[in-house]
Each structure stands twice: as C-alpha cells, then as structure tokens.
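Quick question, first post here. What does this chain look like in 3D?
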Amino acid sequence: MKKIFTFFFLQNIAHRKTALFVFFICLFSVGRADRIYLINTPGYNTADPTLINAIMSLGHTVIVSNNGSALSSGSFTSRCVDPVNGYDWLCFFGNSDFSVWTAEIKNFIDAGGKVFCQYEVGCCLVSSASVATVLSSITGLPVTTTTPALIAGPTVSSTLPPYPPQWEAVHCCLTFRGAAYKGLSGVPLANQFVASTNLNGSLPLVSTCPNFGFFFNTTDFLGTAQKGAITGLGDVNVWYDGDEPPNGGGASPVNMTLVNYFFPNTSSSCYLVPPGCMETYINPSPVPDATLISDTVLCNQSSLQLNVNSGANTILWNTGASDNSITITQSGTYWVMLTNGACSDRDTVAVEFYTASADLGPDQVVCGIASLNLSPLVSSSVMGAPTFLWSTGTSETSETVSASGVYWVDVSWGATCTRRDSVSVLLSQGPQPDLGSDTAACALSDFSLLLDAGTYPSANYLWSTGDTTQTILAQSQGVYWVNVTIAACSDRDTITVRSFHGVELGSDRSMCGLESVRLNAALTRNLPSGYLWSTGQTASYIDVPGPGVYVVVVTQGQCVSIDSVTVKGSLGDGIVYVPNAFTPGPGDLNDVFYVVGEAVTRFHLAVYNRWGERVFESHRQSDGWDGTHMGKPVEQGSYVWILQYSTDCSEGTEVQKSGSILLIR
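> Answer (accepted):
Ran it through. Tokens below.
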C-alpha cells in the first residue's frame, strides 16, 4: 500500500471584515520554481558543480554554502506562505554532522519546506549517523545506522522480506532502481526507497538492499505540526548515471530524469514531492481516506475484492468503477481516488495472481522392491525455481523411501506460494514362487512330478491347470505356471516338464576312410544333463582314438540312460596317398616313388612317359620306381601314373586312380 497525499495552501480574503476566511484545496501549484539552499561540505560526497547546474537548469534558484557552520538558523527559514519570494528546499551534501541543524530542520518543515539529505555509509559514516539522528527526532521512529555498514553487492541476501520494487510517485511515472548503501534501520517499509538492480551500469552490479533512501511527508511526522517533507538518498552515484561523480574521478553525465524527479518545477509531470509549498493548515472539511490493503500476492486464488470505507462524494477506480469495492481477477496495479469537495486522496495496491501445484500422484502399493523414489510433478506461473521440504526433513527435488507410511512434500516459490501434497506408500516384498528349473520325467508311463508354489500366509494360488492349491501333480509333459497373490501383490513362475527318452548313440560305426570319428550323446532338449563315457570323459561328445566298444551314461535329475556303439577298423584304413614329385639319386630322402596306404589287399601301379611308353610297373605296394627304365635313368620331367587297388574297407571292390608325378634331378 502506497499512500499519496499532496496538500497546498491558498489564502483568500473573501470579505473585508474582521473575520479571515481560509480555504483549502488539495492540489495546487504556484507559478514559479523553487529556491534551494544547498549546504555543501567539501569531500567525496559533495554535490558536484555539474549536479548544481543541472538543478538550476530546471529554473530553480540555488544558494550554495560550502561551509555549513557559517549559516545562521534564520538563513534558511522557509516562507512558503509567500508564494513569490519564499524558498522551499534545504539540501545537505557531504560528510558532515547534519544533526546540529535538527531544530532548524524541524522549523523549516513546520513552515512547509522540503528537506533533502544526501548520505553514504562506505566512506561517509558521519553523514549517515547524523541523518539517522535527525530522522529519528522529527518522526519519532527508532531510526539508527545499520551495523555493520554494508555496501550492497552480489553477496547481499535476497531472502529479505518482500520490499516494494519501486517507490510510486504522484503520477506513477518512475521506477527507481539503483546500486545501494545499506545504512539505516527502523524506516517503515512504506517509507523506503529500495534498490533492486543496478542503475545505468552502476556498481555493484546486483543489489537487493533495503533502505536505499527514505521519504516522509506531512502525514508521517511525530505530532501534527510539520507540514513539509524530508527525503534522503543513500548513494551519490545515482545522480551521474550510476558512475562516480566528477569530484570522485568519474565523467558520466548527470541523470536529468532523477534531478527532475527530486527537484521538479511547475512543468514537471514526474516528481516525488510536488512543485511549490507543502504547507497545510487544519482543514475544517474531512479529508477522504483511500487506504487499501498492502501489496498482495495470491496463490491459487481466482479473485480478490478491494474495498474502501469512506463517505467521500466521489469514488473512482482505475478500472472505471465507482463503487466502494471492486473484484479483480488479473495481476496488475490498482488505484482508487476518493474526492470530498476540493480534497482528494488516492491509494494504490499491486496484486499478483499466481498458480502453483505439486502432485505426488495416487497412493501406491509397491511389490517386490525395498525402496521407492517419490518425485512430485510441479507446475507454477511464479518466476524462479522452487524449493522442497519433505516430511523426512530433506530438501531434495525427490525422495527415496524404504518404509511404508504417509509422506508429504512442501514445494515453495519463495514466500509467494507453498503447495503441499501427500501420498500413502505400502512397500511389500510380495510372493516369490519358484517351481525350479525345467525338468524331465524318466519314463512317460510312470510320470508324476510334484510342483510346489511355496507357503505364503493369506495367499491365493492359481495354476495353469485351474487348481487353486499350493501344490499340484504334473502327470504329463507340458508348460505349467502358477500365479500367487497376496493383497495387491502377485507374482508368477513357469516350468517346462518333458518326458525323458534316454540317449541314443546310433548304429555301429566304421573308421574306414576316416581320419576321426565323433560320438555325440547330447540330448536334443535343453535340460541339465550329466555325461560319463567308458573312456572317463564327461563331455557330451568324444572323438574316438580307434576301434572298440564305447559306452556312455547320461543322467537328468533322477533319470539315467545308457547306450553303446561299436567302432570298427582303424583311422586311416582305406586311404591311399600318391605323392606328386620325387628326386631319384643317391643320398636323396625322396629318391623312390612309393604309393602309401593302409589295409591295401590288391595293388597294380604303372608309370608312362609323355610318349605313352610304360617305364615302370609293379603289383606290390612295397615296390617303388627309382626313376630308371631298362637300367638307365630317365630324363627329368612329368610322368603319368595309373593305380588299381583294393582295401579291407572297400570289401573287394577295385578302386582306380590316375595322376602325374614330377621327376626332378
């Protein structure tokens, strides 16, 4: 809630009689600029000539004293009752003790004058302490300097009470923001300037510091005598577009918007205190009271009624309504103007409607796990990330619980909105039926297998057979399943049961013409099995080393199967090898052309030269060709051979092969 009162004085003698009639209106300005006494103490906080010239450029008369102690109290007494020659402003700049003029300041305000105090904390501790003393004396408030005196910056906490983001001027025309020095405590919220961000690039870059400055008018003083106003500002830098003043090494221009705001002339439309006098005498007519509620933030509320209780002749809301109350449904700034004759009062309130929600979902029954993660679904129209507070005491965005119970979470967006939701959680281990691994019965004729789903109190059983008991007898091969349910939790297990037909190694085998023989006892079904061969091996298959009878014992569960097979002959039987080259001559290892083979029973080998002449013939495998013909060595080259033979494996059948042999000398 920001109250705005502006009272001016008009004296009019209506009749030349012994009685003096005084009339009052609430808005009145005289046709001149102000006269300003500026008490300037040399130093960093001095009003620079560029600032003084900027004030004078608005048409004001500025009387500067650079030595405050040389002024007498009568030198700056306000005479607002004289609309022609009176001066209205008394300004203090510099690091000096302003409190020595407390009495004069009171008198100045009593006469309707306006007082401005420039003070700082970081380097000008005397000025801030004296401003606190003066302000406390004339308002009756416990105003003191802040200890320690902090310059606002990025480290200043932003979780302070919700200060207004701007000071609303008479015409609601200026959002005042700037870097700030935190120097005073005890100034009411409604009378504070608050720096919320930096002004025109000033340093520090970020500031959320309260009590950047203050403003008191005729309704704020101790008692009812004071009729003027007093304003304070806690940072000299704001006059110079946020940079250092020229007397502090800066070079930025003066911010004329601020100068006009604090020291307006008759043409100003944006100001803190109006041009002319602030003097007000006792008004015999009642002044309307347009007091509204404080600035309000509503969370998940669709509407708000604003009311004024007044006997004013005229009520006007900025919505156009003229009733004692309005109902609003949208965020915004709302004002009401009450008029009673010539006097008016206006108040403004900022209202924000926000929506926010936090949803943990429905109650949950969770089976077969030891913990559950809870994470709320959050939505909001409020700017910024929310904070969380769980019933367990943690502040994470989600919470993992490992016990049954009711859990809640508070989701907050600063002090604006807090939403709570709760959920009931039941964590149950649930049934875990286990029918075992897939298995087999030893013989279909005596097939009978007990399947047990396990003992669970208060459980319901349902088998694929339709049975509802804990156990059943499986009397045929197939797939069996059971579903076990306890309250809201259930689980299922499945088993495949097959009939076991035993191992089959097949018919007897011969090794003739083979280089190896593999016997495979693996069952076709994917069931756990054990193997033991007569050779001592335990794999599902073996490679036999020679002829003989081989036995295997296969077990599956309680079932045992035995089979055997006879392997005849020897590895390599029936295989004949004919080389493709030889080197006859003394001392050579490969000097005779032989045919190699096992179990050869009939043999005939003939060798021919390229003209078809037979140069060698033999009917015995042990006879080989030494590379001669008729006692003489034949020439180097390729020779054709023809072989006819029988073996034990061929069972009397004659085999014929042919090829070529390379004779190398």
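The first strand starts at residue 2 and ends at 4.
The longest helix spans residues 125-139.
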